[in-house]
Each structure stands twice: as structure tokens, then as C-alpha cells.
Amino acid sequence: MGKTIYIVLSNTGTLFSKAIGMYTRKNMNHASIAFDEELNEMYSFGRKNKHNPFNGGFIREEPTEGLFTNATCAIYKCQVSIQEYNRMRYKIRHMEQQKEFYKYNLIGLFGVAMNIKIERPYAFFCSQFVAMIMNECETTRLPIAPCFAQPHHFEQLPTTNLLYKGNLQAYLYEKRGLEKQVREGVWKRLAFQMQ
């Protein structure tokens, strides 16, 4: 029995996102990795402050807030072994504990555009980070180096399956809303039984 991870590709509609889209010619230009279907635990490299695209680094993302409020997305699920899942989680936890050391790899984006390998310690752009985490698993490893990874490359992995495509908030409302209703329903049943 394995575990499921989720690759979230998104388009936030920012000028930075549009600039990347002009190069990639793809709709989805941001990549994140999540460990639950409701996207409560979602990580990437991006803005630490929504008003400043140049102050970036390792972040735990809240998909109901900030730049995500009007985002479109494509969410892919991927089955991994428990050992692979634990390796990914360990890597994320380690980075989270040292997040102040990590920076956004803006120079690396130019490396992708010019096909030059630019790897910097403690510096990643979003898809480079997701590819590095995915490389913890034999079955989810991209055929290219993480420093060249672009969001659309995750769609091409044979192990990823499309779960949802459309408005991100609509997806979250369905997933989190149902979960909330179920939780409330359980409490109501318990309260009724205790009467």
C-alpha cells in the first residue's frame, strides 16, 4: 500500500507569471507539491510577500489566500511507496527548519531560457524545487535535471494522473467544504446520541 502526493500547477495571472508564460508558451507557470487532496500542506518556492516578486524563497503555501484567490490550476496525483513518501516529507521538513537560508533562484530562470545549467546551493525556483523533491523517488524522477524543469514537464510523467483542471477556489470549496460538512455532521450525530 502506497501514498499519494499531489503536483499543483497554477496560473496566478501576475506580471511575473505572464512573463514566464511568454517564454514557456504554457498556461500554468507555477508548480507546488502537496501531501493531501485538500492542499492543506502545499509547498513551493515563491514570494514571501505578495507585493514583492523579488523577495522569494521556500514557502508553505495557503491556496485560499493572496495570489491564489483568482488562480486557475491543474492538479495531478501520483502514487509513491511509503518509503519514497517519507523521504520526500523528511526533505521538506529539513528545508522548513532551515527556510531562512533558502532564496528564490531568479538567475536559474535565465539559465533555463539559455539552456545553461545554473545550480546554486540553497536557491531554487518553483519547478526546480518540485523536481528536486520528486527526484527522491525512482518512479517520479524527471528525465531532465531539476535546474531545467518547467511546470509542464510534470504533466508528461507517466506516473502522474490529472485529478482536476479549472478554478482553484472551486476545487478547494468542493474538497474542503465537503470535509467541513462531514466533520460537522459527525459532531451533530454525536451530540444527538448523547442526548
Précis, in short:
By secondary structure, the protein is of the alpha+beta class. It has helices at residues 15-24, 82-97, 106-114, 126-134, 151-155, 168-194, and strands at residues 3-11, 30-34, 42-49, 52-61, 72-80, 103-104, 123-124, 160-167.
Strand content: 25-35%
Q: Order of strands across the biggest sheet? A: 4-3-2-1-5-8
Low-confidence stretches: none
Give the helix level as a range of percent. 25-40%
What is the CA-CA span between the terminal residues? 40 Å
Q: Per the principal axes of the C-alpha atoms, what is the gross shape?
A: globular
How would you sum up the major sheet?
6 strands, antiparallel
Examine the coordinates and then state which fold CATH places here, giving the name of the CATH topology: endopeptidase fold (from Nostoc punctiforme)
Q: What is the level 1 CATH name?
A: Alpha Beta
CATH superfamily heading: endopeptidase domain like (from Nostoc punctiforme)
The assigned structural class equals alpha+beta
User: How many individual domains?
Assistant: 1
The counted number of beta strands is 8
SSE pattern: EHEEEEHEHEHHEH
How many helices?
6
The chain-level mean pLDDT equals 86
Q: What would you call the quaternary organization?
A: single chain
Structure write-up:
By secondary structure, this protein is α+β, with helices and mostly antiparallel strands. It has a single domain (3-194), classed as Alpha-Beta Complex (endopeptidase fold (from Nostoc punctiforme)). It is 39% helix and 27% strand. It is built from 6 helices and 8 strands, in the order E-H-E-E-E-E-H-E-H-E-H-H-E-H. The strands form 2 sheets. The protein has a 6-stranded antiparallel sheet with strand order 4-3-2-1-5-8. A two-stranded parallel ribbon has the order 6-7. Strand 6 (103-104), helix 3 and strand 7 form a beta-alpha-beta unit. It is globular and about 40 Å long. The N and C termini lie far apart (40 Å).
